[in-house]
Specification:
Blueprint lengths: L1 H12 L12 H12 L5 H17 L3 H17 L4 H10 L8 H17 L4 H5 L3 H8 L4 H9 L8 H11 L5 H17 L5 H13 L6 H21 L5 H13 L7 H11 L7 H6 L7 H4 L22 H6 L4 H10 L8 H14 L5 H16 L7 H10 L5 H13 L5 H17 L4 H14 L1 H11 L15 H14 L12 H7 L2 H7 L6 H13 L5 H5 L35 H4 L16 E2 L7 H23 L2 H16 L6 H25 L12 H21 E2 L3 H21 L6 H17 L1
Parallel strand pairs: 1-2
Helix pairs in contact: 1-2, 1-3, 2-4, 3-4, 4-5, 4-6, 5-6, 9-11, 10-11, 11-13, 12-13, 13-14, 13-15, 15-19, 19-21, 20-21, 21-23, 22-24, 23-25, 25-26, 25-27, 25-29, 26-27, 27-28, 28-30, 33-34, 33-35, 34-35, 35-36, 36-37, 37-38
Protein name: Protein SIEL
GO cellular component, one term: endosome
GO biological process, one term: intercellular transport
Length: about 775
Amino acid sequence: MEERLWNHCENTLTPSSNVADKPLSLQTLASVSSLITNPSTSDPTIFAIFQTLTSSLQLSHDPLLLRHLLKLLSDLAVHRPHLSHLVFNSVRAHSLLSTDSTRLAAESLSVLASVAEHDRTLVSAMDELDGDLFVSLCFRPCVSVRSWLLSNADRFRVRPYLLLTVMLGFTKDPYPNVRRVALDGLVKLSKSIVCDDRGVIEGCYCRAVELLHDMEGCVRAAAIRAVSGWGQMLIVSNQDGDKTYWSDALFVQLCSMVRDMSMEVRVEAFEALGMVKMVSDDILLQTLSKKVLVILKEKKSLGHCTSKQFEISASSAAGAFVHGLEDEFYEVRRSACYSMRTFPILSDEFAGEALNLLMDMLNDDSMVVRLQALETMHHMATCDCLKVQETHMHMFLGTLVDSDTLIRSAARKILRVMKLPNLEMFKSYIDGLIKNLEIYPQDEVDVFSVLFNIGRNHGKFAACIVQEVSQEIDPRGEKLSFNSVKVAAWLVLAISASLSHDQHSCNIPPRIYSYAVTLLGRISRALSDVMNPNTLLTYLSLCSRSTSSSDTEFRKEESFLPVIKGDIPTYASIEMISYSGVPLRQISDAPSEIHSQKMWEPRELVETQFLEYQPELHDEVVTKYMKLIPANIEGVWPLIQSGCMVEVLRTFRSCKDELTTFTTDSHGSAGALAFMLQYIRVVKLLAKVWVHFLPERKVCSYGMGELHLLLGKLDRSLREMRYRFMGLSKEEELHVLELILLSCILRLSKVEVCCHHATLKKLSYYNFTCRISM
């Protein structure tokens, strides 16, 4: 079948048989293409196809046939790599590279570039092609070929400075599409080349500024991108002068384009504004006011270029963001909201004024704009620049009951990281979340999770609210149904207050935690990312038996948490939240009251005591070794990087043996020794993981499954370090968080390529926790 099909195609492809009145059929082309792409086609047939295509390429003069032949040869080189050199040499040696047909010459050059991209051994052969060929094709009359060559110039390995000259020259081409492509080429060059010649940088920048006034909107949009790229290079190249002045000049130049008549240009202008990293306060404030400020009336003109025709007044920035937020097109309003996220960190006054404008955008008709405004506010909150006032509350609380799910979710996302200044505002936001829950019951899991987060961040406020409503949280009461969403929300708030950074949980009546047990299923689903149901049940049972008067004695009880034995990570593994020095209520070992005896089988469970970390003052030997062991581990790191695992494991074993020889009666010193043993275990696991990231010549190959298991063990050991030991200093907590972040990054790099969302979420959480701790 294969031979018969090829014989038919060969007769059709032969130039002598392909007469003018019998054009090449699509069926023949499809048949040859199927033979090339079919992996079952025999090598003799493939080689016969290559010979026929090459012969036809040399003998045929039909432009249409030649284009099809080039496409088939390109496919042949891609699907049959062993023929790539033969195809490359055949096309390069053919006279098409010097033909009068510009389109065919460009397609030949494209085939050569495509073959070289798939076979990197041909890169040097591609370099041998003279850049003059590319330039000569660009100067031929065919406009479409010229545009295509300029937009794909990076494929042809043209010398950077030759390409820069060509791109700069074609910015004056009479055809707007060519000017646009040339400007985009300049943008690519600004990101890929290292240019120390300030004159060249200034020339490219000034040419882009000149084209900001082009008649065509697509050219002006490309000019904005070029102004942004080369303007940033001009700022960096200014070693001696004031970088703020040059950055202000770029910012104002971009602001002058936000009122352009083209919507595309306005969008590009705001996107470019968001890339400027340094702006003066007075110019920033001017963008929020249409009225020119007095200080800017006295300011001299700004400009990067030596020519005065490119100077621009600082007052050109007047009301830039206001105009963007009032634009008739939602794309412009969305872009303006997005670009505003860069600047609140530069100016507190700008942050306050910008927040007023963003709050107004929450009434926008477009859901996309409202969502972007909320995302910008979330970015401000993570940078600690969001100062919400009482005047904003009504507008913001309205988003919690918005009809769109994405809007409600974005608003709750802000509340997770928002810092509230007083109890009244805290109450208002809690009421808003409860109202959200009453109107949209499907949001329960996320609302409970947000309540837990803001309760932990504002423990004092949460405890006050729980105390106020404690009489209403009573199954015997007639005022409120015990199964109402309000009661469930208040119970979540009570749990969060007991685990907050503020020590106010002792004022919460223990019976509250007993009531929470009855809603364990609903609450545990919301807190699944921080603790599993078994841990939550044990903790609630513990807190329900404690009293404020016996709190000190209660902490001294010896107790343990059920933990799955072994190091393989499972969803049942305990992942407790951090209490940052506030001890999690120790969970007493009363299995008869909570679990059946079967749960406590020694083969399935191990003891996990919550230990005081700080050693006693008289344990000088313990303190000495606590300082010595990290120093030894630091010295071992070069061995880990070189893959010398035998020496590394021997060193870890020696450190562990030394620690196990200590005996102490001190509660704190015992915890310190346990912490150091756990630290050694973590670094040992990290070393085993690191081996998988070394070059293959240094280590033998390992399976992906083994790496996944090691990362699981490392994650679990790090969680135990973070949640088991009380009394860690801020530096020690930050060090543990850094190790957790490293573990997440290693997992993203190697394992969770297909399911990286969970790791990215965890990475974002721990990254934010690090910033809060600092």
